[in-house]
Amino acid sequence: MRKEKDKINAIILEVTNLLLELGGKDICIHEEEKEDKYIIKMSISHTDISNEIIEKLNKTLNSDNVGEVEGYYWELLGKGRSRDNLYIIGSLIDKAEIRYLNDDELEIIMHREKR
Fold it and tell me: Binning pLDDT at 50, 70 and 90, where does residue 38 land?
């Protein structure tokens, strides 16, 4: 159980770092634990992240989850640049949704099934 929480914390930290690198401000984070999964919601205000970058984020975060090597991957978080770590984050989450809520507020919702 503790390792799951460590993974959730690492995911939040890396995505937060990435959003700051991309110029995001006023970042709000909500983490919710359900019976079968964790849901991480992040909203970022005052951002002008291009649609091209959002599409890349969406594709990378929704990459295949590789359960067999997950134990090794999550320990690599924080070792490189946040943009490089997106592939690791994508392997740790099961689903991501990224969308603009209005002209300058971006929302990212990530789901991770309990293992």
Answer: very high
